[in-house]
Amino acid sequence: MKKFYITEIFIKNKKSRTTVVLNEGGARSSKSHSICQLLIYKMLTEKNIKILITRKTLPALRVTAYKMFIDLLVEYGLYDKKKHNKTLRTYTYNSNWILFTSIDDPTKIQSTEFNYIWLEEAEEFTFDDFTILKTRLSGKCKADEKNQMYLTYNPKQEFSFINKKLKYADDVTLIKSTYKDNPFINSEYIKLLEGLKEQNEKLYKVFALGEYANIDGLIYTNIKNTGEPYPAEFDEVIYGLDFGYNNPSALLMVGIKDEVYYITELLYETKLTNIDLIQKISELIPPGRKRKFTIYADSAEPGRIEEIYRAGFDIKPSDKNVSDGIDFLRRCVIYTNPQNTNFNNEAQSYCYKKDKNGNLLDEPIKFNDHTMDALRYAIYTHSRKRGKVNIRVVRGK
Questions:
Q1: What 8-state DSSP symbol labels residue 393?
Q2: Options 2.30.30.100, 3.30.420.280, 3.30.70.100, 2.40.50.100; which CATH number does 223-385 get?
Q3: What local confidence, expressed as pLDDT, does residue 123 receive?
């Protein structure tokens, strides 16, 4: 087994003795990575324990905490495919058992008792979700041991149950962190985070400092998050694709019905080569749709577009006029749903730059905008091709 390289955040969580441990911090502060390492450590050093790793929706869990846990096992030389039940999403180690599941259906965890529970992106959960999960924190343990819940989150929702209820409750530890607590973060990302201060100070407070702030200058205030079901059939279906590697590759399906746009997040994942990406797209877009529905992709990557086209997909380069594209999308009726976790997170922080006097500029901040780009590629480019884009509307200050 390879050595663990840990941070102070790992140590603080390991030393915590309260039932609930809140990990509140900015982007890349090591909080999620540290909790994942801590649960692996407990898996290795304790006996007869049950661990639940959860996020609000299953698609988001698969590409975040679930993937991180398995990837770390591989990295540390601990992974054994015989112990990994991919169908049930469980992993066993000696007498220990780990379950990876979402909480969008509470029946998934009925009649199961856990010793440790990790809620990744905990602000996505409701107080009822938290209460249900806490009732499952009842696994058998020794007299000198304690069952614990770990919550990791960026502080975006000032009026969330975490900020208003849990922080000040008994038997709760709050561990705050920023990118400065992560000695393994690369200098390029540090520069990106620190650059937010000059572009939009409130965005800097949330992502760099891990503090609550009401972000102003939001670009898409017209995106409505609804729990209502989408139409059973659409007039048209298109796709938007933003390429990435160190940054996530993002794929959205956009259903169009009566000039209303309905968004479904299909992919949001890092470290995908083009071969990996083609495989993922092949799994997400049924074979019968490969040539039937168009994918609008980042035109700055013609080689990747050509390779995906040769794989059988109707993929076209997008119109990358950012300003005109945003102005058009701001006039559209766009619906999302709670399952689109990464899309929703980006939409809630996608905002305009500010000048030195605090005035909003007609230029978005290039940060956490991968699904936002995919959205614009799809809707704006498709609408131009249909002749739906005419007069540019200039946003008022």
A1: P
A2: 3.30.420.280
A3: 92
